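Figure 6 in text form: structure in, sequence out.
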């Protein structure tokens, strides 16, 4: 699309606002207008009294809609924030008039909408007023405003248990039996790349020892461990035991608040693997069908059937592992409300402690986009009803929404929400979303997130991310360089971590 901005406003922010109305839009420097190509002009003018006015003109084919919005001097926020709010309100109004579509999340574009709700509640607005502000000033529809406040309230309750000396650990296993058509994660499926698993697990052993040593030096205590991917249960039971035994040799897993193994794909789950997981202290696993329709499963590249899922779930239930999460995806290509609602009903009948409902998100690197350029949907179609149905049914089945995040190019601009029975919330998910504690990360594609607290222990003062090599072969190459003391080897992550905390101590 063609985007022109006049004024000191973050271009990326404006682009994300545009994508609310034009999902999948691209923003090349040399884009030109034409049939079917949207054009947006944004002008921002601060006034001498501390207010800001934004003007937006939006054009699609022969139709043009203009809108303006002002944020007055009395709103106690920075000029940059005022500019963002003014642009958001003007663009929302123009887009609504041009397309006749009202985005459910209004002008909120960030990954973590519950953070806005938390800030409003902590600011003394209370539950009811916070909902009203989200509805009237950020243009959320009433259901989304209520959801954001509900998630924020439960997150705040859960985070009270998180003391400053706690941290978490993420371990990346970026391998899968097959690649789903909607996936863009760094995960590997070909036989040649799957042959890297043995040396990959070996490299993890060294990095885990290094990480555990670092945690001890810093005087921190592990609260949660999350083994994700990919699909960690792509590992054989022997490879899995090697990994879990290393963890249990360095951590008393009984002291953890949570120990998650992202089993994920039903076709990788066996009784032997889950027996190993239970023996080494795993308390939470995922068994993810995404849908209970075999035709759709084939279309999205899943190698398992609905029957495989029920068999895997039975194994998980009989394993004695405390918490089972089930992932579903609303809005999958070819899915509809009837099928999705039946899937939700059948999953609720199983009575897992956690149900996570994602909305289909079109990733640029996914096969789904390569094979179907018309996959984007601004209105969301049946996905809107599907998400609403899931939220209503889980509520009446005794689940509460406890964490939430949003992504760009999600069908209908909808959200991903985790629902849990009381006392069974996935704490790692809350810590990751709310960025309240340091999360160490090991493995290819893993991102260590270092969080320093403000002096009063509330909002983070500083967040630094350290990225591991993205691909398994890069991760292994770096491991070999370090192992052989090669000059080309990068400084160990542990050195960067210690530097961060040492600098923080001196501040």
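Output sequence:
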């Amino acid at each position: 699309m063609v985007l022109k901005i006049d004024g000191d406003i973050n271009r990326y922010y404006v682009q994300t606002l545009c994508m609310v109305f034009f999902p999948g839009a691209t923003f090349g420097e040399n884009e030109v207008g034409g049939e079917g190509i949207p054009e947006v002009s944004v002008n921002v003018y601060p006034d001498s009294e501390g207010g800001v006015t934004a003007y937006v003109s939006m054009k699609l084919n022969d139709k043009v809609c203009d809108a303006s919005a002002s944020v007055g001097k009395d709103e106690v926020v920075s000029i940059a924030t005022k500019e963002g709010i003014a642009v958001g309100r003007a663009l929302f109004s123009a887009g609504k008039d041009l397309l006749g579509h009202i985005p459910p999340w209004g002008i909120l574009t960030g990954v973590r909408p519950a953070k806005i709700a938390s800030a409003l509640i902590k600011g003394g607005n209370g539950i009811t007023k916070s909902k009203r502000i989200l509805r009237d000033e950020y243009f959320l529809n009433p259901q989304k405003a209520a959801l954001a406040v509900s998630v924020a309230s439960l997150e705040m309750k859960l985070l009270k248990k998180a003391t400053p000396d706690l941290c978490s650990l993420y371990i990346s296993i970026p391998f899968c039996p097959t690649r789903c058509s909607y996936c863009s994660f760094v995960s590997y499926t070909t036989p040649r790349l799957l042959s890297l698993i043995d040396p990959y697990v070996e490299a993890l052993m060294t990095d885990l020892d290094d990480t555990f040593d670092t945690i001890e030096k810093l005087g921190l205590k592990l609260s949660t461990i999350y083994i994700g991917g990919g699909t960690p249960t792509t590992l054989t039971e022997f490879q899995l035991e090697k990994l879990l035994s290393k963890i249990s040799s360095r951590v008393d897993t009984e002291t953890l608040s949570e120990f998650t193994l992202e089993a994920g794909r039903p076709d990788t789950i066996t009784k032997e693997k889950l027996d190993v997981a239970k023996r080494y202290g795993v308390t939470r696993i995922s068994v993810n069908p995404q849908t209970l329709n075999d035709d759709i499963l084939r279309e999205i590249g899943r190698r398992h059937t609905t029957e495989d899922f029920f068999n895997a779930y039975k194994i998980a239930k009989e394993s004695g592992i405390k918490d089972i999460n089930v992932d579903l995806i609303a809005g999958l290509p070819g899915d509809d409300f009837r099928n999705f609602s039946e899937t939700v009903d059948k999953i609720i009948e199983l009575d897992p402690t956690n149900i996570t409902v994602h909305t289909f998100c079109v990733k640029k690197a996914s096969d789904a986009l390569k094979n179907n350029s018309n996959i984007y949907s601004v209105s969301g179609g049946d996905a809107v009803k599907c998400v609403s149905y899931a939220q209503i049914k889980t509520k009446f089945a005794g689940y509460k929404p406890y964490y939430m995040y949003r992504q760009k190019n999600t069908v209908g601009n909808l959200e991903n929400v985790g629902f849990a029975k009381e006392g069974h919330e996935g704490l790692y998910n809350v810590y990751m979303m709310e960025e309240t504690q340091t999360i160490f990360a090991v493995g290819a594609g893993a991102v260590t997130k270092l969080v320093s607290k403000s002096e009063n222990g509330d909002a983070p003062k500083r967040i630094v991310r350290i990225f591991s090599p993205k691909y398994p072969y890069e991760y292994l190459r770096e491991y070999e360089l370090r192992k052989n003391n090669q000059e080309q080897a990068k400084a160990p992550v542990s050195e960067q971590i210690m530097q961060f905390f040492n600098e923080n101590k001196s501040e």
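Caption detail: The chain is about 40% helix and 20% strand.
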